[in-house]
Amino acid sequence: MQNTPINSEVVKAQLAAFNLTDMDKASIREVVEVVNRIEAETGQKFVRMEMGVPGLPAAKVGVDAEIEALRNGVASIYPNINGIPPLKTEAARFVKNFMNIEVKPENCVPTTGSMQGTYALFQVASVCNEKKDTALFIDPGFPVQKQQFMVMRSKFESFDVYHYRGEKLRAKLESYLEKGNINSIIYSNPNNPTWVCFTEQELKTIAELADKYDVIVMEDLAYFGMDFRKDLSKPGEAPFQPSVANYTDNYVLFISASKIFSYAGQRIAIVVMSDKLYHRNYPNLEKRMMIKGFGNAVIYRVLYALSSGVTHSVQFAMAAMLKAVNDGTYNFIEEVKEYGKKAHVMKEIFLENGFEILYDKDEDELIADGFYFTVTYPGMKAGELLYELMFYGISAITLLSTGSTMQGLRACVSPVNRNQFDDLRLRLKQFNEDHTK
């Protein structure tokens, strides 16, 4: 490896320092830190695809609103734990305008990013019914959500959906739900890391089984509206963002500002609970948390225990951004289409250099080009592939860390600048030549 783009001795030393000789076990943050160190020591820049950070400027309407709120003195005032009224109103409007689903402002609650939201909801769902002590992930999925379960010391099961699309999904889900111990079903749509999207029939299947077995569906919409095969950008007009909420009242939605508004640094999201679930009383929940009602337990027990409300100024930013898209004065989807354009080019570069795309279809339809895509290289396992690519100045994460059974990597397009495409092409060409030999 003496002629690789990145000094091989430095790469080996830094990987060993992090005990990352087995890259299958590498977390996103570990890959980030080891690449930071290699770049600092060698002075050479990686093509970095490991972390899903926004690659676009934050929405100006949000920045302006937050600055104004700070100037008006909100920094010295604790926010309402429920969220400020304008934000709750605009969140309910947003769900109606872009999902065609009626929700009450009361049921829309801000959280410090979706990660705080999922952590809170996982906590509450795990104690609603003492017989239902296990969550079910439809994988692949966001690795940190399982880390949240590890911290909570709560149980979960999971399966890779790759072989269970369409009608096969029903039997696979029911094989878990019929045991009677599942309290929630968790997935993202569009999916992180694969970018596959559930079809309407699949969402209906999930909903029907959730009702049959009294299970809460938790739908992570971090990449809301970013299935670019359809134009989901017009408020109040079809087509709408697909959702399980069309078919069941046993749902919780997570809508984050991080990707759709490139507002990741300020940490805000909205948890949306159905009215039926929000007001539902669970005897074991009252026994465990001494409060009636699912929604009240989320807000006044878990979220309050985690923080005294979401940062006051960022709530004004989120309210302004949602109002702008609700009013049709800001088209957030037009902004984020850049991710799909970059993904199209990057996929071609990988394909022309011996790689293959995994998770490439939603049943019979090709998936959209978007924020993520997945790749494999013939004859190489995921950890081995990631390890080898590090010497060529290319970083990603393994699919194994996301709950996938496939031997490949997740590539995130957002951190890659267009001026790095030539470097990516040259490095992958050399990688392919070296490994073909």
Q: Which characteristics define this entry?
A:
four-stranded antiparallel beta sheet; Aspartate Aminotransferase, domain 2; Aspartate Aminotransferase, domain 1; 15 strands; 2 domains; 437 residues; single chain; alpha/beta
**Regions with pLDDT < 50 over 5+ consecutive residues?**
none
Total separate domains: 2
What is the arithmetic mean of pLDDT?
A: 96
Task: Kindly provide the name of the CATH class of the largest domain.
Answer: Alpha Beta
Helicity, as a percent range: 40-55%
Enumerate how many helices there are, as a single number.
Answer: 16
Pairing-aware structural class of the strands and helices?
alpha/beta
CATH architecture descriptor text of the largest domain? 3-Layer(aba) Sandwich
Kindly estimate the percentage of residues that lie in beta strands according to DSSP. 5-15%
Output the radius of gyration: 22 Å
First and last CA, distance: 13 Å
Assign an overall shape: globular
Task: Summarize the main sheet.
Answer: 7 strands, mixed
Task: Briefly note the CATH topology name of the largest domain.
Answer: Aspartate Aminotransferase, domain 2
CATH superfamily of the largest domain: Type I PLP-dependent aspartate aminotransferase-like (Major domain)
Strand order of the largest sheet: 2-8-7-6-5-3-4
Number-wise, the strands total: 15
